Amino acid sequence: MPRLAILVLAASLAGGCATWPEPGTGGFAERRAVEDPGLQGLTTRYESLRQRGAERWAAGLADEARLLLIRAQRNHQAGLVDDLADDRLRLARLLDAIEPHLPSPKP
Amino acid sequence: MTISATAQPPFRRLAAFALALAALLFALAAAASAATARDALRIGDTVALRVPGETALSQDFKIDRQGQIILPEVGAVIVAGLTTREAEAAIRTSLSRVYRDLDRLTLALKERRLLVTVLGYVKNPGPVEIPGDASVQMAIAAAGGLNQGAQLDRFQLRRKDREISFDYKKYLDTGDPGLLPALEPLDTLFVPASPRTGNVQIDFDGRTLAEAGDGGEDRSSIKVFGEVNKPGIFAYKAGSNAIDMIMRAGGVTRYASVEQIRIIAKGQPTIFNLQTFLDSGKAHLLPDLAEGATIFVPKQLEEIRAGKNTVYVMGEVAKPGAFDSKPGAGFIDILANAGGPTRFADTRQIRLIRADGTVALVDLPLFTEGKGGALPPVGAGDAIFVPEKTDTKEPSWLKIAPDRAVKLMGAVTRPGRFEWSDEMSLLDLLAQAGGPTHKADLARIQIRLGENDKGKPVLFDMTAYLNGQATALPRLRAGAVIMVPDLPSSPVDMKGQWVQQAPEASIYVMGQVGSPGRYAFNTQMNFLDIIAAANGPTGAADLRNVRVSHRNGKGSRISKVNLARYFETGDDKLLPRVKPGDVIFIPDRNKEWLDDPKERTVRVIGAVGKPGRYRFADDMTLLDLLAEAGGPTSDALQSKIVVINITAQTEGARLFDLVRFAKSGDISRLPAVRAGDTVYVPNIAQSDWKIFMDGVRDVIPLISLVALIGAL
After folding, report:
1. Residues of chain A contacting B691 with CB distance shorter than 8 Å
2. Inter-CA distances, B397 with B28, B424, B656, Å
3. Residue ending a domain, choose from B239, B268, B297
4. Which end of chain A has fewer surrounding CB within 10 Å, N or C?
5. CB atoms within 10 A of CB B382
6. Which one of B562, B622, B695 has the shortest CB-CB distance to A13?
7. Residues from chain A contacting residue B669 (CB–CB below 8 Å)
8. Quick one: pLDDT at residue B602?
9. Does position A68 have pLDDT exceeding 90, yes or no?
């Protein structure tokens, strides 16, 4: 009988051991250093364009690129690699689109 | 025994004697009566009463208009009409009631005066007192004299019930006092006004009246009019003839047709040839006049000149007329002979109408500038017509022939028909019309080259021209029709005007703007112009979701405009290019989730203040979302917030412990959230401990029951 009671008790308490997902990361990834080499290159390129006046000559595209960079950094930090690849591609295209609007760099 | 011829029967003699005696008595009585009437006292007379010892009575008394004198103590005594002796007796009788010893009372006529009234056209009408033997002329002088305009031949004297008319003018002409009636006391003399003075009171001057004639009533006056210097109505005098009356009318003018003077006397019309009469001096050629006759001197008609060398010059020249041309005379010679064009002449439009019917246009200013070539030769029978210069304010459209006019309508200061010359431009025309009004839509000036032009109207954008974006003005020609349309008024107030605005020149703004509606739009304007024209977005406008429907291309195309980003960045490239016909829609921010696709929003569900879909920008975090959703509720399981990331290939969930984050501030533990993800905030009932404790609560009674059964 005691054996039966233990069994019933164990079965009843097992409901409290629910499974929760892993803790997430990457929510503020833009505050940290970029670790992904590919993304680092794009970040450097974006900064370069910004210094050349992207926020003046192509403000709309530059703002869109800024947001996309944040998204890519977060995806990278969160381990969402599929989306990261897509973000990298879109970001590269955006930076390409900004380029023609900027004045030529001084030699 | 013979009987004497003179012998008559005694009764015959007696009868003759009685008859003679009666005649004598009658004559004596009449003489006595006349003497009595002459000696009788009259109204206006002054009598001298003398009563020795009575100074109050011994005075002069004037017989008033009632014919009486007023005596002290006894009052009025009527003496007018009595002889002096009779009057003395009457006075004595009246005074005897008061006075005694009146035997030595005497009465004598001291002065005779006349009391009459002068009325009518005199300077001071009213009663006048004049000497007893005064005439009408003295009475008029006492009344201040005649006014100008008095009708002299129609004076009236009113005595009791009688009215006597007399011709005062005749008296003035002749000096015969017998032509004037003798005045008696209480007579009224009336001076009428001449009919020439009219019915309006004006201070006439003698000259004006004299020029209008001196005639009185029409039936007795002579009317003289036509080509005389002073037409008027003149008084008829017996023996006057037509020449007298014409001379009174100032003689004939230089335009008079003296051969055709018409005279109507006693209803019979007569033609009087004054020229023949003067040439011949035959009196029988002079027609008789009568009272009421009419004399008309007609105007001499111009003789029509014509000849084989005649050239005619008409219109606005100093001396238009027919001129005899000589061989070699040119256009300028003839024009100069006609005195040259007046200042009203339109010298650019002189027409030479040739005898064969052809017409040549002569532009004289152009010729004087040496650009017009040779002037046309002028031959016999040709006519030169110099038209009047057209006044731009001239209301008559007949002034400009249709083949020389252009019509300018719509929003210009003075729309109308204007004379066109090919050297003019549209700008000249607009300037002539006072320029466009402030409401003119210069970007859409519509031009038709003729009323029968069936092609599409030419649209001219004058704004672009003035801005230097267009170089050519449209080519116009006479007969063209130009319409300058109005800019639409406020679409809110004047929706009725929308129908006047072509759809292809309009753009539509709807949704959350101050004044949604249909707006005039042209290629000079941009997106912001039209948004500003619609009074800009309202406070409820969703600036991130502005849509533009481009309707002019093939197929449908929608542009999504993030106007908020434009305002953040100022990047004009974010603004779409809009064209007339496009539709701009600015949605309501409060209804945005209905229109947002799931790829742009994050679902926040579970134990939050306002679960729902929230638009998510990539620079937002989970914390922003929770705050926007009202934050976790009091029963939220804040340590187990779940973020479900939906990626391109896979889905995964991550946990966020808000409690721990709040304690540590470790941002590395903040999960990434992207648009399209889902955030779930569980209820505290779903915590492990709660589930465990619920399980314990459920198991304890069961264990107790098992233990009880086991004990038994």
Report:
1. 15-16, 18
2. 97, 20, 89
3. B297
4. C
5. 22
6. B695
7. 23-25
8. 92
9. yes
